[in-house]
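Figure 3 (text version): structure tokens given as input.
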């Protein structure tokens, strides 16, 4: 769940590159625009020529109060355009291209007359020439440029069957449907129900129900979203882990996303964790779970919860866990949405790691419940205990020695399983997700610092505190720490 603190303040969404772009268009006031100021700007760019028609600006003189309204009046003249009819080769792909380009513009390279970008959706096969028979749902709304970017990465996924990909669009929007059909994919559009988070939840329910009905022999679905880049090995990652999800009743899902998997805290694409939170952002759902448990009690149109927060609630999770990768198989790039803005994207998502390697072999047996617990015990016993006099919030640079590929353990204060105070402060210091507690297993987190594997254990809450040396006092940080600047 993303904080609503900045939802009514546009300047929170104006990052440096956006201000720079608007300034280059000819704005005189964009660099002065601050909290609660009012601003309006009308400009046009045709090829390399810029036309500024009007701009207005009012400064907020009182903190937290809105500035006076801005009103501008201008006329934008119609300018003639040259319409070019490209002489593309006559084939099925270019028929789709022409239909798209006769209607829309702004998609880099697609409509070039000379050497247009490919719109073929031909993912590479597995090394043995086969493909993975898993239905793939792409959840979309009216963000066609996002969908375009996402599908370009999806077509690089090894083993993907294009015939089993369906783009589900929440509403009858032409442009995203054209984008999906340009790539030759199936499109399913339906009438929106309710609004805001309830509308999104109904979109998911309709799409999941329709998919299980469309593929009656499928025991699993892969759920992706339109604002995700996709790793080329996401399906082989899922495929290797499906037998564990099938056999281990203590598991809830397999996710492609690691909430704490930033470029500076993730390293090994073959490493996986078990966590007590449902990450979403690219995941596998079983028919048994959906039809037997979730679908009958799915939140109705009058319930304004986030569907993923509902699924994270232990009433639905029932103490089961999800498997996640150390290095994520998706990358969240969407900076606009109901619960997202550019500030949040820059602050919490931009620096996430995304795996770019194919054919990553996983040791999946280690993900079974009992084996995983034994492996954690082994890792902690063999790990070197970090110097607990070095608080990571005051000694960030030398908190973990720069000795690559070594394992360390670090103990923090957690009086009970929901005592997150010290963890939130550690998360802020390490510049990872700190809005709520995620990515933990029995009050234990795993991540990489200075390219070394670090296990952070909350004591006395975690059963793994039994391995703590008697002379080690867990770090206790009760006063709120300010997140370090980038």
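Below: residues designed for each position.
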């Amino acid at each position: 769940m993303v904080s609503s603190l900045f939802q009514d303040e546009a300047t929170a969404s104006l990052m440096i590159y956006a201000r720079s772009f608007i300034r280059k268009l000819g704005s005189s006031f964009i660099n002065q625009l601050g909290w609660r100021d009012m601003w309006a700007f009308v400009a046009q760019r045709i090829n390399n020529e810029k036309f500024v028609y009007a701009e207005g600006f009012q400064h907020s003189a009182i903190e937290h109060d809105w500035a006076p309204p801005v009103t501008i009046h201008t006329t934008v003249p119609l300018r003639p355009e040259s319409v070019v009819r490209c002489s593309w080769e006559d084939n099925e792909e270019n028929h789709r291209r022409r239909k798209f380009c006769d209607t829309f513009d702004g998609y880099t390279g697609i409509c070039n007359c000379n050497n247009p970008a490919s719109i073929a959706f031909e993912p590479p096969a597995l090394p043995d020439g086969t493909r993975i028979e898993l239905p793939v749902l792409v959840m979309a709304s009216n963000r066609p440029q996002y969908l375009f970017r996402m599908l370009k990465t999806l077509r690089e996924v090894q083993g993907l069957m294009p015939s089993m990909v369906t783009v589900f669009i929440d509403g009858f929007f032409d442009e995203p449907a054209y984008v999906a059909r340009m790539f030759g994919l199936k499109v399913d559009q339906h009438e929106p129900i309710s609004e805001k988070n309830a509308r999104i939840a109904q979109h998911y329910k309709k799409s999941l129900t329709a998919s299980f009905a469309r593929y009656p022999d499928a025991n699993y679905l892969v759920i992706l979203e339109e604002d995700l880049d996709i790793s080329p090995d996401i399906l082989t990652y899922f495929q290797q882990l499906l037998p564990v999800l099938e056999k281990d009743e203590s598991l809830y899902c397999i996710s492609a996303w690691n909430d704490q998997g930033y470029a500076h805290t993730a390293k090994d694409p073959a490493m996986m964790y078990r966590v007590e939170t449902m990450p979403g952002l690219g995941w596998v759902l079983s028919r048994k779970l959906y039809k037997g448990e979730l679908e009958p009690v799915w939140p109705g149109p009058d319930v304004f919860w986030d569907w993923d927060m509902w699924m994270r609630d232990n009433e639905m999770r029932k103490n089961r866990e999800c498997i996640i990768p150390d290095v994520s198989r998706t990358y969240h790039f969407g900076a606009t949405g109901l619960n997202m803005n550019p500030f949040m994207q820059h602050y919490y998502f931009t620096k996430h790691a995304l795996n770019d390697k194919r054919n990553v072999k996983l040791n999946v047996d280690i993900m079974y419940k009992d084996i995983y617990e034994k492996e954690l015990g082994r890792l902690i016993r063999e790990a070197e205990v970090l110097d607990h006099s070095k608080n990571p919030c005051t000694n960030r640079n030398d908190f973990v020695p720069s000795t690559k590929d070594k394992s360390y353990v670090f103990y923090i204060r957690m009086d009970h399983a929901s005592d997150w105070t010290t963890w939130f402060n550690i998360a802020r210091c390490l510049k990872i997700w700190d809005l709520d507690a995620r990515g933990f297993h029995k009050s234990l987190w795993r991540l990489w610092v200075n390219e070394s594997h670090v296990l952070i254990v909350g004591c006395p809450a975690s059963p793994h505190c039994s391995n703590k040396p008697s002379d080690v006092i867990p770090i206790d940080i009760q006063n709120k720490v300010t997140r370090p600047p980038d």
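The first strand starts at residue 38 and ends at 46.
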